[in-house]
Amino acid sequence: MPGQRANSESRVLFVCLGNICRSPTAHGVFQALVDNCCLESCIGVDSCGTGNWHVGEPADQRAIAEAARRGYDLSPLRARQVCADDFAQFDYILAMDHMNLQELKSMCPADYRGHLGLFLTFASGVDLEEVPDPYYGGADGFSHVLDLVEAAGEGLLQEIRRAHTAR
Ligand code: 4NP
Predict the structure, then answer these.
(1) Topology at the third CATH level for domain 10-160
(2) Segments making up each domain of the chain, as ranges
(3) From 50, 73, 107, 161, which residue has the greatest number of CB atoms within 10 Å?
(4) pLDDT of 138 above 90
(5) Rounded distance from Cα 10 to ligand 1 centre (Å)
(6) Following DSSP, what letter does each residue of 144-166 receive, concatenated?
(7) Sign of dihedral through CA atoms 15, 17, 18, 20?
């Protein structure tokens, strides 16, 4: 597993393009799931973007507002860009869409032993491969993102618990 950590810990990195809409939403939702199960000492959560346009900025106000309506606080999050060291630090690197997954694959070291893939593969009952980019749309796009990442987050948590039990 990547990094020098206690072997009970899994670290999850959510990746989109700007790190201001989809991946911070996934970050906040999944962190809440982890916290609700009292697993914060076992599962680390972070997010980033493949692009650098919004580095240092908070999440998009529409993402913060829609998440707050469901009880998630995205306000402390700040955008950052993915870096080579992320492949040493994270066991699960989960892209929101194929374009960002391709970018991550182009950076991924040959000896990476974690899981690099699409986040929605963990969503049961969802007939989509990608979390649609809500940046140029309205509030309903951000609500749809929340629906998708809540479903995928549940599946991911089950998978991490299953993998941990199987160790
Ligand atoms: P995200 O959405 O990748 O879900 O954070 C976007 C945010 C910003 C831009 C594109 C997508 N942008 O072009 O600045």
Answers:
(1) Rossmann fold (3.40.50)
(2) 10-160
(3) 50
(4) no
(5) 27
(6) HHHHHHHHHHHHHHHHHHHHHHH
(7) negative
Longest CA–CA span in the chain (Å) reads 44
Q: Which residues face 12 on adjacent strands?
A: 45, 92
User: Alpha-carbon dihedral of residues 107, 109, 115, 119, nearest 10 degrees?
Assistant: 0
Distance CA 107, CA 145 (A): 26
Find the catalytic residue in 11, 16, 21, 97.
Answer: 16
pLDDT at 67 over 70: yes
pLDDT in tens, 109-125: 999 999 999 999 999 99
State pLDDT tens for residues 21-30.
Answer: 999 999 999 9
For residues 89 and 8, which has the higher predicted lDDT (pLDDT)? 89
Using the mean position of ligand 1's atoms as its centre, give its distance from the Cα of residue 165 in Å.
Answer: 36
Strand partners, 46: 13
Mutating to test ligand 1, I would choose from 133, 144, 146, 149 the residue with most ligand atoms within 8 A of its C-beta, which is 133
- Structural contact between residues 132 and 141, judged by C-beta atoms closer than 8 angstroms: yes
Residue 3 scores a pLDDT above 50: no
